[in-house]
């Protein structure tokens, strides 16, 4: 008997360690049946990853799985939500058991870490791609949106910026002069982000606005500025750069800073904090164990001004735009 | 400035007539924020449609949109759920405004009919495909699953069966001898199903099991049989066949019956009803305004037996399996 899509789904996706009490009915019926806690909003986000656009078709399936799920969880983190469930739509040219098995290994490792249950999805034939919808909870009135920022608020980012773009350059073979250990580290940084779930939760009631950096800091910060109707001044000397990024840039600091401003798929959080909450921020983030860096301040005049300490810069930068890229 | 994915999303997907009170935050942030009614389960289903597998790349975008959304709503209908929200992940080779505009016309017409709000999604570059996640509500304990059927229960289907397969044959150019009006009618039947939302809701508390027919009656009924651990006897003379299907089959009734048993993407409901609920069924469905037909009965012995009135048939049939098809 021919192996069909049902068998594929059954074999690979029904065996998972996570078994949440709020999942009344999981994979195997027309719908999943789920329970949202009283007093909470449901937070929902959807992301697609397409071979040739977001990853190479021959990329390690476990890394692709991690990247897909981590980027989606990052959207929950950016709202301050607690992850709960994920649906997975997987399209592949042929049922490839080796690929599926490796993919599931990466997928379920991360899902288990965050106690996320796979509640359903679809498996279809076609060019390799995957779409995930993650869902989580957040108590009423505590979500971090993009529209609450005010002039005077301070701008922060978690982690370091720029490594994802450097890793992508290595993956695409655009950088051949690096040591193999440096190259490998940067590739891992591109694929293996850590969604800032604890940081997002810690920012509830403290940050005035937040989002995750998927299309580049400058591009994404623009969403907060537009929705909150403010501008920003960023001091590029404050941008958090990893030693590996500086090495990648041949210690050309300006080049590293430009990468940090535009690198997409970082999945770090960018958030704003009013002056009177800065003390609370330090306390809250000590518990989350995440490095945060203040890189600038919001101002009344719209637009973004880049400064090197007090000197204004006229750098021309563009964001990370999948429709403009040809990554394969 | 180059047109990027944000502009695309903004322009085409933020203008919708539906504006639900349970959507606190919709498109434009990292997540949508939603409110599930107290006392209700959240029902979630995901479906992908891929060009070349589920539709032809040059198919009318409005019909593709209808088919995608209707098939997904049909999963909610099969649980007895009330539709509420949808997320749309759209992958396309280039931003094509003509295509997007027609797609949105079909998509929002159907979404509006069922009062479904588009709450988010993703737009990416790649081979044409779309993945939808629909969500709806169902009061606790009232969901129609696949596992409650018992031997002795009667098997029903809504509407007619077989037209979708006949329409697909026309689309693929496998039938050239038909009148153009017949051909056109069958193509419409393939693309434009009506999700049985009211019927599904009417079946709460009456049906012992239910699902929608996406992979062919025989294949899908098998899920109920497997999960409920029963078998089925189907009288093929009871299968509801449209006049157009009989015309398509050159009035070869056996051929039409075989199509009815295997035709995928019908999006009619197949459900089972205990003897003592048959009276309630008639009353409930009178309000839903949907034709239903009793086509057989569940039996203790596993497997499916096909009969022509009392004569057992040895037809060999297989279900609709996307991995086995090469539709392009």
From TrEMBL, chains A, B:
Q: Which InterPro entries match?
A: PurM-like_C_dom, PurM-like_C_sf, PurM-like_N, PurM-like_N_sf, ThiL-like
A matching Pfam family: AIRS
Biological-process GO terms, alphabetical: thiamine biosynthetic process; thiamine diphosphate biosynthetic process
Reaction catalysed by this enzyme? thiamine phosphate + ATP = thiamine diphosphate + ADP
Pathway connected to this protein = Cofactor biosynthesis; thiamine diphosphate biosynthesis; thiamine diphosphate from thiamine phosphate: step 1/1
Protein residues bound to Mg(2+) 4? 30, 45, 75
Query: Where, by residue number, does Mg(2+) 1 bind?
Result: 46-47, 122
Please report the stretch or stretches of sequence annotated as the PurM-like C-terminal domain.
Answer: 150-301
Task: Identify the EC number(s).
Answer: 2.7.4.16
List, alphabetically, the SUPFAM superfamilies matched. Answer: PurM C-terminal domain-like (SSF56042), PurM N-terminal domain-like (SSF55326)
Question: Can you tell me which residues bind Mg(2+) 3?
Answer: 30, 75, 212
> Record's NCBIfam families?
PRK05731.1-1, thiL
- This protein is called what? Thiamine-monophosphate kinase
């Amino acid at each position: 008997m021919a192996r069909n899509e049902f068998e594929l789904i059954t074999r690979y996706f029904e065996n998972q360690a996570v078994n949440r009490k709020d999942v009344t009915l999981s994979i195997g019926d027309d719908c999943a049946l789920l329970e949202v806690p009283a007093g909470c909003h449901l937070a929902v986000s959807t992301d697609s990853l397409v071979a040739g656009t977001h990853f190479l078709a021959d990329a390690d399936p476990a890394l692709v799985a991690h990247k897909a799920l981590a980027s989606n969880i990052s959207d929950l983190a950016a709202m301050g939500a607690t992850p709960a469930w994920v649906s997975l739509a997987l399209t592949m040219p042929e049922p490839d058991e080796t690929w599926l098995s490796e993919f599931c290994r990466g997928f379920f490792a991360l899902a288990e870490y965050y106690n996320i249950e796979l509640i359903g999805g679809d498996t279809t034939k076609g060019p390799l791609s995957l779409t995930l919808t993650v869902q989580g909870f957040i108590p009423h009135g505590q979500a971090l949106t993009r529209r609450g920022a005010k002039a005077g608020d301070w701008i922060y980012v978690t982690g370091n910026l720029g490594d994802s773009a450097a890793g992508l350059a290595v993956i695409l073979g655009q950088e051949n002069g690096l040591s193999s250990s440096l190259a490998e580290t940067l590739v891992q940084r591109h694929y293996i982000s850590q969604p800032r779930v604890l940081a997002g939760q810690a920012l509830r009631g403290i940050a005035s606005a937040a989002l995750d950096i998927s299309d580049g800091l400058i591009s994404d910060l623009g969403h907060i500025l537009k929705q909150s109707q403010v501008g920003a001044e960023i001091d590029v000397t404050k941008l958090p750069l990893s030693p590996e990024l500086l090495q990648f840039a041949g210690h050309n600091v300006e080049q590293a800073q430009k990468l940090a401003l535009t690198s997409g798929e970082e999945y770090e959080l960018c958030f704003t904090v009013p002056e009177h909450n800065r003390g609370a921020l330090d306390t809250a983030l000590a518990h989350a164990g995440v490095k945060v860096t203040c890189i600038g301040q919001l101002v009344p005049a719209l637009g973004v001004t880049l400064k090197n300490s007090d000197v204004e810069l006229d750098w021309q930068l563009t964001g990370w735009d999948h429709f403009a890229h040809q990554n394969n």
